Amino acid sequence: MPAKTSEITARKPRADAQRNRERILEIAKKEFTRSGSSASLEEIGKKAGVGPGTLYRHFPTRGDLLIAVYRSEMEKLAAAEKILADSLPPIEALRAWLMQFVDAVETKQVIAPVLNRLVGDPKQVFEASYAAIHEAIRALVKRAIKSGDVRQDLDPIDLLRALVGVANVAASPHWRQSARRLVDILIAGSRPTK
Question: Which CATH number does the domain 1-60 belong to among 1.10.10, 1.10.760, 1.10.3470, 1.10.150?
Answer without folding.
Answer: 1.10.10
